[in-house]
């Protein structure tokens, strides 16, 4: 039986040792609710009404349930606690001088976290990240922070990947900030005398040349080289060894580690994939979150997690009597059909130990917005000297077949490679030309990405074959369908399951779907699809679940394009 190294265990515990002290300093600090709107307060003055604005969500408005959505993103914390954390860090580093925070600025209000920039009196700068409460349970927030920090640590120490260093963190609110947090180094534009910028500044999916777009895609593929370098022993998420249950602490996360300082540092525990925790069921053990040791077990869990969650939701009388409750039996039945399909998502001619089914680390938000690149390179063909990858929240170890292309280039539409393929292109109306131009660019971007994958990961390229895209589509839809915005969204998954009946015809019987539908069910689906399409046409900003950037929202309200209805919700004026 392999034992956990006591040295490693102590070092990991130190990362959250701050939870033992709750003493605040009383120095004054400058903080701002935006870069151009600064306010003063005293760190210990919790009665200052102005400071409350510092914690409120301001970057957008939801067309319905705006107040409730913003309350889920309200992030009050004990501002004075930041100095206690800094003091502890300096004490641990054996530095003689003491330091304190002189300013705390709100930098970003993201999808899952609020980002602050803390500046110290010695010029040091740190990023403080506070997670939104959202609908996450404490256990969910705890697991996601534990796993994210461990994943970043793994890639830095194992593969030397450029990732901001985590300085301090705590996955519970038992610390001087009284909130879960991660404190990490700030990669400023002139970090280490380099010339860093966001890779998004170089990414134009349509306007730039193919070569320019390929330069950006090459950075993404080079980052994937280290993300995918390890073939793990199970499917789930990475944690520090002391953060998984005792029964998992003796199971190595991968084979062949020879570094004694690393061999007992990490383990694989329950997945922190979003859908496994955001289904309204938070009790440990109710939903199977892994780890799993076969691809088929993982896939089945993506179905049973939904069935369990929706079945439990129906036990609530308030839900059962609501509009959602009337749809939930359909959701349950559809995910049970998806469960029946999951064995067929692994093609019979693909061996269970093949590379494309192997457990590989997946970054769920791999896109240029999360990449900082150094522009110091002198070679015009290699303009980026180095790249930092940010935001590892929700990273999980999944069968590579089900990673798919990064969302920012994932294209499911009809492929067009050049204008000459379209008859009378020059005579088409401008809006049709624009649509075709988009399809050409999207086709080109995905082709360039897959071409690079083929050369960088030749044993993994079959995960992007036409047949692979067929079998991964039900998985993709099942893991992105949400019941809480509109209950008719389940129509998309049912449509995908019905389409699977055509697999045998288009693959010469190499793929056969075990899912069956009666003629009556198919007719009902056709009617529901029409209703859903009509409903979508009346749902503005559906892709963002009704969220509108604040400047756009204010502009549309001023112009009269958005008006309130009798329910207090905003709708597009017809």
Q: Outline of this structure?
A:
The protein is an alpha+beta fold and 574 residues long. The protein contains 15 helices and 18 strands. The protein has a domain at 8-195: Phosphorylase Kinase, domain 1 (2-Layer Sandwich).
Compile the SSE list and pairings.
Elements: H1 6-14, E1 28-34, E2 37-42, E3 60-62, H2 66-71, H3 81-92, E4 101-109, E5 113-120, E6 125-131, H4 138-159, E7 166-170, E8 181-185, E9 196-198, H5 210-227, E10 237-240, E11 266-269, H6 274-277, H7 295-313, H8 317-320, H9 323-341, E12 359-362, E13 371-374, E14 387-389, E15 396-399, H10 430-456, H11 466-478, H12 490-499, H13 503-506, H14 519-537, E16 547-549, H15 550-558, E17 562-564, E18 570-572
Parallel strand pairs: 1-4
Antiparallel strand pairs: 1-2, 3-16, 4-5, 5-6, 6-8, 7-8, 9-13, 10-11, 12-15, 13-14, 17-18
Family: Belongs to the AIM9 family.
Keywords: Mitochondrion, Transit peptide
Subcellular location: Mitochondrion
Question: Would you write up a description of this structure?
Answer:
- By secondary structure, the chain is α+β, with helices and mostly antiparallel strands.
- It has a domain at 8-195: Phosphorylase Kinase, domain 1 (2-Layer Sandwich).
- It contains 15 helices and 18 strands.
- The chain has helices at 6-14, 66-71, 81-92, 138-159, 210-227, 274-277, 295-313, 317-320, 323-341, 430-456, 466-478, 490-499, 503-506, 519-537, 550-558, and strands at 28-34, 37-42, 60-62, 101-109, 113-120, 125-131, 166-170, 181-185, 196-198, 237-240, 266-269, 359-362, 371-374, 387-389, 396-399, 547-549, 562-564, 570-572.
- The strands form 6 sheets. The protein has a 7-stranded mixed sheet with strand order 2-1-4-5-6-8-7, with helices on both faces.
- Helix 5 (210-227) crosses helix 10 and helix 11 (466-478) runs antiparallel to helix 12 (490-499).
- The longest helix has 27 residues, at 430-456.
- The radius of gyration is 25 Å and the shape is globular.
- The chain starts with 5 loop residues before the first helix and ends with a strand.
- One of its GO terms (cellular component) is mitochondrion.
- This is Altered inheritance of mitochondria protein 9, mitochondrial.
């Amino acid at each position: 039986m392999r034992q956990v190294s006591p040295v490693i265990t102590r070092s990991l515990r130190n990362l959250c040792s701050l939870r033992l002290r709750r003493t605040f300093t009383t120095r004054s600090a400058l903080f701002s609710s935006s870069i151009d709107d600064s306010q003063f307060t005293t760190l210990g003055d919790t009665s200052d009404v102005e400071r409350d604005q510092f914690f409120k969500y301001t970057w957008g408005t939801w067309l319905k349930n705006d107040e409730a959505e913003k309350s889920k993103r309200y992030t009050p914390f004990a501002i004075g606690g930041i100095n206690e954390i800094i003091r502890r860090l300096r004490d641990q580093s054996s530095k003689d001088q003491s330091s304190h925070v002189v300013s705390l600025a709100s930098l970003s209000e993201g999808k899952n976290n609020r980002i602050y920039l803390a500046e110290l009196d010695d010029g040091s700068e740190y990023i403080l990240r506070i997670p939104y409460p959202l609908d996450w349970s404490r256990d969910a927030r705890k697991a996601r922070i534990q796993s994210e920090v461990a994943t970043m640590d793994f890639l830095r120490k194992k593969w030397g990947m450029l990732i901001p260093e985590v300085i301090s963190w705590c996955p519970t609110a038992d610390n001087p900030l009284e909130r879960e947090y991660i404190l990490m180094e700030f990669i400023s534009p002139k970090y280490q005398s380099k010339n860093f910028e966001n890779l998004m500044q170089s990414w134009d999916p349509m306007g730039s040349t193919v070569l320019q777009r390929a330069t950006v895609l090459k950075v993404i593929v080079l980052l994937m080289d280290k993300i995918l370098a390890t073939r793990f022993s199970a499917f789930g998420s990475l944690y520090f060894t002391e953060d998984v249950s005792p029964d998992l602490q003796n199971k190595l996360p991968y084979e062949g580690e020879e570094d004694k300082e690393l061999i007992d540092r990490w383990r694989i525990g329950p997945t922190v994939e979003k859908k496994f925790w955001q289904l309204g069921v938070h009790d440990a053990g109710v939903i199977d979150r892994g780890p799993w040791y076969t691809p088929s077990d993982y896939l089945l869990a993506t179905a049973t997690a939904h069935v369990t969650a929706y079945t439990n939701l129906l036990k609530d009388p308030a839900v059962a009597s609501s509009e959602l409750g009337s749809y939930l039996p359909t959701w349950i039945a559809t995910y049970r059909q998806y469960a029946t399909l999951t064995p067929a998502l692994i093609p019979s001619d693909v061996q269970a130990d093949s590379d494309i089914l192997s457990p590989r680390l997946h970054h769920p938000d791999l896109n240029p917005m999360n990449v900082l690149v150094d522009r110091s390179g002198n070679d015009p063909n290699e303009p980026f000297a180095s790249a930092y990858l940010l935001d590892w929240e929700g990273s999980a170890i999944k069968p590579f077949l089900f990673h798919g292309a990064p969302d920012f280039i994932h294209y499911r539409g009809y492929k067009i490679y050049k204008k000459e393929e379209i008859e009378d292109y020059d005579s088409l109306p401008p809006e049709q030309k624009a649509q075709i131009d988009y399809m050409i660019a999207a086709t080109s971007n995905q082709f360039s990405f897959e071409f690079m994958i083929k050369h960088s990961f030749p044993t993994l390229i079959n995960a992007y074959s036409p047949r692979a895209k067929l079998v991964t589509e039900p998985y993709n839809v099942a893991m992105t369908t949400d019941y809480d915005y509109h209950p008719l969204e389940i129509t998309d998954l049912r449509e995908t399951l019905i389409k699977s009946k055509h697999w045998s015809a288009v693959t010469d019987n190499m793929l056969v779907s075990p899912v069956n539908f009666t003629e009556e069910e198919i007719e009902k689906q056709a009617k529901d699809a029409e209703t859903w399409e009509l409903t979508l046409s009346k749902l503005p900003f559906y892709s963002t679940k009704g969220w509108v950037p604040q400047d756009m929202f204010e502009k549309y309200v001023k112009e009269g394009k958005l008006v309130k209805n009798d329910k207090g919700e905003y709708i597009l004026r017809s």
